[in-house]
Amino acid sequence: MTYDILIADDHPLFRSALHQALSIGLGPDARLVEAESIAQLESRLGEKADWDLVLLDLNMPGAYGFSGLVLLRGQYPQIPVVMVSAQEEASIVVRSREFGASGFIPKSSSLEVIQQAVRTVLDGDV
To answer: Which CDD domains does the UniProt entry name for this protein (predicted)?
Structure first.
């Protein structure tokens, strides 16, 4: 099965690293597309509404706090969203779940942890 994954992060270096980690971890089973802002994310979602997963940075241009997550949950409730952030406080993780995130990946995580977390969500084990 091929998975369509949208990586939304405003930092090019982290976006590239995440892209590479998922390419290695999922191999040819992953089609990865990137967005660097909420506006670009909305454009990508407008082009195709049946994404298998969105990896969403908490702090993105065009979003304030959890507004990007709230937008996705409201307009695309069928798409799992995993928050990715350098802010790792327990309260942020809890709020992410309360606002409908399927998971939370700290940016300090190892590549193996990121790959496993994404695989878990794609397998529907959350």
So the answer is: REC_NarL-like (cd17535)
What is the domain range of residue 80?
3-122
Instruction: List the pLDDT tens digit at each of the 126 positions of the chain.
Output: 899 999 999 999 999 999 999 999 998 889 999 999 999 999 999 998 899 999 999 988 888 889 999 999 999 999 999 999 999 899 999 999 999 999 999 999 998 999 999 999 998 876
- What burial letters (b/e) apply to 100-113, b meaning 16+ CB within 10 Å? bbbbbbbbebeeee
Beta strands in the chain (DSSP E): 3-8, 30-35, 53-57, 81-85, 103-106
Q: How many domains does the chain have?
A: 1
Residue (of 73, 59, 63) closest to 39 by Cα position: 63
CA 116, CA 28: separation in Å to the nearest integer? 16
CATH of the domain at 88: 3.40.50.2300
Among candidates 38, 30, 39, which has minimal Cα distance to 5? 30
Verdict on whether the full-model pTM lies above 0.85: yes
